[in-house]
Design goal:
Layout lengths: L1 E2 L3 E3 L11 E2 L15 E2 L1 E4 L2 H10 L5 E5 L4 H4 L2 E3 L12 E6 H4 L3 H14 L2 H12 L5 H11 L13 E7 L2 H16 L3 E9 L1 H10 L4 E5 H8 L9 H16 L1 E3 L9 E6 H7 L4 H10 L5 E4 L10 H8 L2 E2 L1
Parallel strand pairs: 2-5, 4-15, 5-14, 6-14, 9-10
Antiparallel strand pairs: 1-3, 6-13, 7-13, 8-11, 8-12
Length: about 325
């Protein structure tokens, strides 16, 4: 059965995408055929608006989030358990063009290794909260992280090197971009600041063209979006190694070791909604769609609405249709 998702548009969004999705379901325990729960409502919002909308329960009880976003704790949101392990791993690595990496391979490996190791889930969430919830400048958050963890040695290991550093355009990426910029400068390199290049496709294109030499990228993004794979690899290091090997061979791009934090997608609700609805997991949300569709209101942003690792794939995996 093919369903056409009904959308309400808020905030001046310009284009409507085709949003028909298959409702078979192949997750463990997913429904099929006439048993598929269908109902509820989907509202499309800009990503930055979703967190407040979920906290206020207006216009939705549930919303798409990134799991290291500091607004989750700041707004006392509850992230539903992905109990059927649908969302891919999104561990981040510094990625370099081969030409910029190879002359300084040993120095860059040694420089970045303690930085990535220090970027745990708790740490990255705290850094994000300082920017997104507390309003600190990303540059200041990055500098404080490096200084407080004794990661600036000023050893001159990159004297004579030159790098152009980029990043995507959201808080976490801006922080990571400024971490790279400060780290490379402290090691003696000349660094050109191109932090905040734009979205994923724009930043990736800048790296491939040589307009930038490095930025931080998520292995799940490469696997799903760049390589067009539909089945994520559930082991963190196996996913990284598969991406690193393939990107080096196909595009001449070098992935350094990944940070331990996993900024994957999630669905969240307010603590008030949690107390009222008792929805612990995504499977519980499926039950809610069947039993109380008026409460199954979901806010998502445009990209999540069409990605294979977003709402269409989530519906198919868990066996439901919302909207």
């Amino acid at each position: 059965m093919i369903g056409q998702r009904k959308l309400r548009f808020i905030g001046g969004l310009a284009a409507v995408a085709m949003l028909a999705s298959a409702c078979g379901g192949n997750g463990d325990g997913a429904a099929s055929g006439d048993d598929i729960p269908s109902g509820g409502d989907v509202t499309q919002l800009d990503l930055g608006v979703i967190y407040g909308a979920v906290a206020d329960r207006d216009p939705c009880n549930f919303g798409e989030v990134f799991t290291t976003d500091g607004r989750i704790s700041a707004l006392d949101l509850v992230v539903l358990e992905d109990d059927q392990n649908f969302f891919p791993l999104y561990n981040v690595s510094p990625v370099f063009t081969q030409d910029s990496y190879e002359p300084y391979a040993d120095e860059l490996d040694a420089l970045y290794a303690p930085v990535t190791e220090a970027l745990t889930q708790e740490t990255m969430t705290e850094l994000n909260a300082r920017a997104s919830a507390d309003g600190e400048r990303e540059q200041d958050v990055a500098q404080d992280f490096l200084e407080s963890n004794d990661l600036l040695q000023g050893d001159g290991s990159l004297d004579g090197a030159e790098f152009t550093v980029g990043s995507k355009d959201f808080d976490e990426q801006l922080i990571l971009g400024y971490i790279a910029l400060a780290l490379l400068e402290d090691a003696g390199a000349t660094v050109n600041d191109e932090v905040n290049v734009g979205g994923t496709d724009t930043t990736r294109a800048a790296l491939e063209s040589g307009d930038i030499d490095t930025y931080w990228e998520y292995n799940g993004t490469a696997w799903i979006s760049f390589f067009g794979e539909t089945d994520p690899i559930p082991d963190r290091m196996e996913q990284y190694e598969a991406v690193a090997e393939r990107d080096l061979e196909e595009s001449g791009l070098v992935w350094l070791d990944p940070a331990p934090f996993n900024n994957t997608y999630g669905l969240a609700m307010s603590s008030e909604a949690y107390e009222e609805l008792g929805t612990d997991s995504i499977s519980d949300l499926v039950d809610l769609i069947a039993e109380n569709p008026d409460a199954a209101t979901l806010c998502v942003e445009a990209e999540f609405n069409v990605r294979d690792d977003g709402l269409p794939g989530l519906e198919e995996h868990y066996g439901f249709q919302i909207g």
